[in-house]
């Protein structure tokens, strides 16, 4: 008999994509898709159950379906539709508590996969160059989604102690990008002009949404020979990009502001509903964050298909050129470089051949 997989957070694009992918796996007999709201996208042959994980009813859903694998994707930074930050926090924290309580009582549950974030490390000036899974945060998040993720992971560790028979996998994703990504950073990069913090050019890491689906699938099954898929893993594409490189590749101009002005601008765009420019987002765009993926490769046995640069390139292609398309800027630079230089006597020096412009 095959697996019964219960997935939360299916009303979002990422959850919907994972549901459609996991049900094609021959090892899976049934997929149960759970969310408080009915998704607008198709869920394939999955059984959709409209249930709020913040309510005790999730225990009944788990008991009736007999799920042996639970994939908890309803841990997010942004509200769905017109939801508020309070609703998001309740779903992240209280919803996780209710779900874990239901899993603890269910003898059928043998595997739990939880979507977390590298936001748990925070972003501060005293941070190490690279975070490993065991590196303590120099500055614990004081609010927002980062604090939610820290609390969620704390509850998951407690569950793992109470149910040692359940294989628990926590995946700390770097900033997720791609054509359909619904993340605060994707919203930020979609702005026509990017506010930045004067004097800072942070290092950023990205993971492609396709790789997110792939690694969730790996974590949902028994480990392959020579690998281990229980524990906590950082998930990110190879390499890093500076924020300045990102803006050039998007063709979007930046507006460097003093930190207080960036905070004010963040409040403004958040009020206007343009993006979730939270304090933790501002800290990320000030200090950046880079994580080690050695455990992801050597222990989990997962190698992303996209590097950080390739992930960002795919995101940029899907969102169209900005106000300053890189090709147009490069062409203008080359034309200026090709102009003859004026000499003191009134003549002109031969121009040097232009060199290819780099982003």
Unreliable stretches (pLDDT < 50, length at least 5) are none
Strand order of the largest sheet: 3-2-1-4-5-6-11
By secondary-structure content and strand pairing, the structural class works out as alpha/beta
DSSP E strands, number: 15
Give the radius of gyration: 23 Å
Overall form: elongated
What's the overall average pLDDT, rounded? 89
Give the N-to-C terminal Cα separation.
Answer: 53 Å
Strand content: 15-25%
Major β-sheet annotation:
7 strands, parallel
Q: Helical stretch count? A: 12
Helix amount:
25-40%
Topology order in helix (H) and strand (E) letters: EHEEHEHEHEEHEEEHEEHEHHHHHEE
Provide structural commentary.
The relative contact order is 0.12. This protein has 359 residues and is an alpha/beta fold. The strands form 5 sheets. A 7-stranded parallel beta sheet has the order 3-2-1-4-5-6-11, with helices on both faces. A two-stranded parallel sheet has the order 7-10. Helix 2 (57-65) packs across helix 3 and helix 3 (85-105) packs parallel to helix 4. It has 12 helices and 15 strands.
